[in-house]
Write a structure and sequence with these properties.
- This is Ribulose-phosphate 3-epimerase.
- Its EC number is 5.1.3.1.
- It is built from 8 helices and 8 strands, in the order βαβαβαβαββαβαβαα.
- By secondary structure, it is an alpha/beta fold.
- The protein is globular, with a radius of gyration of 16 Å.
- The two termini are about 10 Å apart.
- The structure holds D-xylitol-5-phosphate and zinc ion.
- The site of zinc ion has 6 residues, from strand 2.
């Protein structure tokens, strides 16, 4: 399977959102990554349902929604109705993770679980077979433009081992501080999906930057 670049809309120009969405539509990226922050689970508020609705009306690719909110199970249906294809909840925000994952799947979405940088991979031992994707946070969630945390490589290796050991087909996504210096190394360690926000949208030629990343991870 080819490796996936998922530009994070958090770094887009919200005053030119349609333009930036069309840019991703025409690019080599396969997914849109959408960050929803509630100001409680993380110390920042991004955007909510009306904005996702607007994105969904223009986006022509797979929509990967990353919920950084408390009590995510209250909103699974709402995000399905808004066009999410993958819904990722945080391990740290989910009291009944198994139930939440089943709920997400029952609405026809793929189910993802995100781990904060300090949360160990082994906590997923009893749930990994039910999860379509694990998102390893490579920065502390809440903001774009932060520095990549190097310990992520070791977590990818451990997660890959767990997936193989359990005979699961779970994808590994890396979120935070991804750029052209670490992309190939992340893939070599076992990552399948790379989220890139600032590196794409703050670059001079975002379409070319996506293409460059795509070539680095699919060589
Ligand atoms: C951080 C978000 C990320 C963020 C990545 O909490 O989950 O998706 O947009 O942005 P960069 O690529 O700038 O680190
Ligand atoms: Zn994210």
């Amino acid at each position: 399977m080819s490796k996936i670049i998922a530009p994070s809309i958090l770094a887009a120009d919200f005053a030119n959102l349609q333009r930036d969405i069309e840019m991703v539509n025409k690019s080599e990226a396969e997914w849109f990554h959408i960050d929803i922050m509630d100001g409680v689970f993380v110390p920042n508020i991004s955007f909510g349902m009306p904005v996702l609705d607007a994105i969904n009306r223009h986006a022509k690719k797979f929509i990967d929604v990353h919920l950084m909110i408390v009590e995510p199970d209250r909103y699974t249906k709402a995000f399905a109705d808004l066009g999410a294809n993958m819904l990722t909840v945080h391990y740290e925000a989910s009291t009944h993770l198994h139930r939440t994952i089943q709920q997400i799947k029952s609405y026809g979405m793929k189910a993802g679980v995100a781990l904060n940088p300090h949360t160990p991979v082994h906590l997923l031992q009893s749930i990994i077979q039910d999860v379509d994707m694990v998102c390893l946070m490579s920065v502390n969630p809440g903001f774009g433009g932060q520095h990549f945390i190097e310990n992520t490589y070791a977590k990818i290796t451990e997660l890959k081992e767990l997936i193989l050991q359990k005979n699961a087909s779970t994808l590994i996504e890396i979120d935070g501080g991804v750029n052209n210096k670490n992309a190939a190394k992340l893939i070599a360690h076992g990552a399948d999906v790379l989220v890139a926000g600032s590196f794409v949208f703050k670059s001079e030629h975002p379409t070319q930057t996506i293409s460059e990343l795509n070539q680095l991870v699919n060589q």
